[in-house]
Amino acid sequence: MIGIIGALDIEILGIKGLMTDIEEKTVSKITFYKGKINGKDCVLAQCGVGKVNSAMCAQTMILLYRPSQIINTGVAGAVDNRLHIGDIVVSETVVQHDNRNVLDEGQESFMDFPRGLIQFSDELITEIHADKVLTQTLLEECQKDLPNVNVYYGVIASGDQFISGKTARLDIGTTFHALCCEMEGASIGQVCYRNNVPFAVVRAISDTIDDNDYMDFEKFKYMAADEMLKVLKAFFD
């Protein structure tokens, strides 16, 4: 069974429309839709925005449905000036850009607490690697079924912040060598990593380095969500 998680209604409604034999179950006010796409078992959920919501959703999905893999899909903002609206990014790794040690305003310590550090009880890491087989499949489907769309493979950064400033976006891109930022992928990756569930994050760019305020996001998020639907449909086909 393949798990699919999106944060916004526009990120899951099209996918739900592809499903048959749907069974619903609500846990912690998150509704899970179990069914089939093109004859393949899947479970879909809208987690809500942010790392806590997405982590809660991913852990619950794993405990309830035991998916063989989880895909986080949706829209993202570019933190690399090469990316344009509608481009696709597939995760090589995910990081949490808002994990940082701030000494004072404008001052940051990198000595004892490297930026992006995730502190487990038994290990410290900064990057979580997505599953190579799953990401390769998604890359191939993007390149085959979206021939006029630029597809990138690299770092996706997550944080509980809507990053609209150009300087702030470039900082994330430079620090982590990231391509885009959003608010859920790395926390889903963290849950999958600790549960030994293969995962991948695939995002369509809804706003660029220069077109990056909330109104730009609102304008282009529907187009980006349509691109994501094409990718997922091709994946299940």
In words, what does this structure look like?
The two termini are 15 Å apart. The chain has a 5-stranded mixed β-barrel with strand order 5-13-12-6-14, surrounded by 5 helices. The relative contact order is 0.22. The protein has a single domain, classed as Nucleoside phosphorylase domain (Rossmann fold, 3-Layer(aba) Sandwich), CATH 3.40.50. Helix 1 packs parallel to helix 6. Strand 7 and strand 8 form a beta hairpin. It has 6 helices and 14 strands. With 237 residues, it is of the alpha/beta class. Helix content is 35%, strand content 34%.
Low-confidence segments: none
Strand content: 25-35%
- The topology string of helices and strands comes to EHEEEHEEEEEEEHEHEHEH
Approximate helicity band: 25-40%
Average of the residue pLDDT scores: 90
Number of strands: 14
Instruction: Give the C-level CATH assignment.
Output: Alpha Beta
Look at the structure and name the CATH superfamily: Nucleoside phosphorylase domain
Class by alpha and beta content: alpha/beta
As a whole number of angstroms, the C-alpha radius of gyration is 17 Å
- Report the CATH architecture: 3-Layer(aba) Sandwich
Number of helices: 6
Strand order of the largest sheet: 5-13-12-6-14
Quote the CATH topology: Rossmann fold
Write a concise synopsis of the structure shown.
This protein has about 240 residues and is of the alpha/beta class. Helices cover about 35% and strands about 35% of the residues.
